[in-house]
């Protein structure tokens, strides 16, 4: 490919918003799990495990699509520090979307709990039972969840910044519908981004 796309592909956009809904659901379910001892706990943990493994599969597919199709360039007038921040935050988001489900499944294995998903699908254990390892993995999963939540809030704030304040077309690259038709001709002229060659764009978003 000689240049980067101006929007993510339809499949990439669908995966982004599907995963966003799943991640928000995971946060609420996680809070419900640690704050209840009622019979609702078991259904919640079953949904949590199923969503976690599903998200792991989806993020791997999304990462493969990102590597294959690339990502739209950020506006050329965006400060370098913001571009670097966008790059690092996306690396952290992808990393946590992969690490969190792996930690969750691993801590269940270490506690000798069966990992049974919706539909009775069971993932065979790959770790031996160990109370010490279980405690370590549980703590990592618990505290990284707060870091993950903070990153998601930062991601949402950045999206609103680009969509409502800068109005520079960054949000449109991942929005489910095109916003260009809603903009006035003056806005389209003002916020149109020049084509940037892939060799000249140091940082990209995802």
- Shape category: elongated
> What is the total tally of β strands?
2
CATH fold-type name: Fumarate Reductase Cytochrome B subunit
Rg over C-alpha atoms, rounded to the nearest angstrom: 20 Å
In the CATH hierarchy, what is the architecture at level 2? Up-down Bundle
- What is the residue-averaged pLDDT? 85
Quick structural gist:
With 206 residues, the protein is mostly helical. It is 62% helix and 2% strand. It has helices spanning 10-34, 41-69, 80-110, 131-166, 185-191; strands spanning 115-116, 122-123.
What would you note in describing this structure?
The chain has a single domain (10-179), classed as Transmembrane di-heme cytochromes, Chain C (Fumarate Reductase Cytochrome B subunit, Up-down Bundle). Helix content is 62%, strand content 2%. A hairpin with a 5-residue loop joins strand 1 and strand 2. The chain is elongated. The chain has 206 residues and is an all-alpha fold. Helix 1 runs antiparallel to helix 2, helix 2 (41-69) crosses helix 3 (80-110) and helix 3 packs antiparallel against helix 4 (131-166).
């Amino acid at each position: 490919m000689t240049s980067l796309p101006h929007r993510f592909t339809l499949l990439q956009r669908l995966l982004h918003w599907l995963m966003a809904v799943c991640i928000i659901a995971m946060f609420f379910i996680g809070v419900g799990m640690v704050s209840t001892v009622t019979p609702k706990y078991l259904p919640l943990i079953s949904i949590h495990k199923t969503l976690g493994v599903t998200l792991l599969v989806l993020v791997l597919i999304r990462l493969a699509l990102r590597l294959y199709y690339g990502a739209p360039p950020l506006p050329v007038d965006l400060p370098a520090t913001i571009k670097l921040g966008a790059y690092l935050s996306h690396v952290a988001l992808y990393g946590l979307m992969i690490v969190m489900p792996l930690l969750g499944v691993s801590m269940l294995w270490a506690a000798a709990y069966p990992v049974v998903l919706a539909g009775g699908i069971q993932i065979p254990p790959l770790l031996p039972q160990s109370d010490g390892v279980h405690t370590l993995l549980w703590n990592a999963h618990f505290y990284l969840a707060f870091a993950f939540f903070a990153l998601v809030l930062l991601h949402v704030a950045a999206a609103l910044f680009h969509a409502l304040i800068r109005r520079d077309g960054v949000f449109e690259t991942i929005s489910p519908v095109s916003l260009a038709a809603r903009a006035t001709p003056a806005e389209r002229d003002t916020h149109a981004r020049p084509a940037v060659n892939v060799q000249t764009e140091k940082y990209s978003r995802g």
